[in-house]
Amino acid sequence: MSTETLLSLVVGVAVLGLLIYRNLVARPVRQANPRLYLILGILGIVETVEFIQKNHVDATIAVTALAGSLVLAAAFGAIRAITVRVWMKDGQSWSQGNVLTAVLWIVALGAHLGYDALIGHAKGVGDIGSATVLLYLVVSLAVQRFIIVARAAKLDPVAAGQRSWTG
């Protein structure tokens, strides 16, 4: 395992830890600053492109493998969103995940790495899973967030117009 691969995995695991922590803490569902998604997405794209260029990977195969992985990310985001409790308190919608939410985050990362190991090595794109881990986490988080905000809007339709999907 190269130093770059190890660094990508460490960053991915650190981001995963932050996401799990933030999911387990009760928080108001409100419009968030989309910079988090943007920053993590850009970092993920940069890591992916660098991996493809450095390892002379066929871009078509890499993009196909990445697309399948991101579909998996969206599916896990949707499943996790179901495990998050959404309620109203003092006129504000709140959300909080539970142990199952945290376990599903870990399983999702394992599924990403497992999928990429199977597809990546079979198609000759190597250890692309470590390079795409941030993209995977961003997509999974965005889908989860979109569903949670939609659920919160059903509880408080008047305030729903004040929120965005990034909340």
Short description:
The chain is mainly alpha-helical and 167 residues long. It has seven helices and three strands, in the order αβααββαααα. It has one domain.
Walk me through the topology.
Layout (H helix, E strand, L loop, with lengths): L2 H22 L2 E2 L6 H20 L4 H25 L1 E5 L2 E5 L2 H25 L4 H4 L1 H23 L1 H4 L7
Antiparallel strand pairs: 1-3, 2-3
Helix pairs in contact: 1-4, 1-6, 2-6, 3-4, 3-6
Question: What does it look like?
Answer:
- The chain is mainly alpha-helical and 167 residues long.
- It has one domain (3-160).
- The chain contains 7 helices and 3 strands, in the order H-E-H-H-E-E-H-H-H-H.
- The chain has a 3-stranded antiparallel β-sheet.
- A hairpin with a 2-residue loop joins strand 2 (85-89) and strand 3.
- It is elongated, with a radius of gyration of 17 Å.
- Mean pLDDT is 83; it is low at 163-167.
Radius of gyration: 17 Å
Helicity, as a percent range? over 70%
Query: Taking strands numbered 1, 2, ... along the chain, how are they ordered across the largest sheet?
Result: 1-3-2
Query: Which spans of ≥5 residues are poorly predicted at pLDDT below 50?
Result: 163-167
Q: Could you spell the SSE succession in H and E letters? A: HEHHEEHHHH
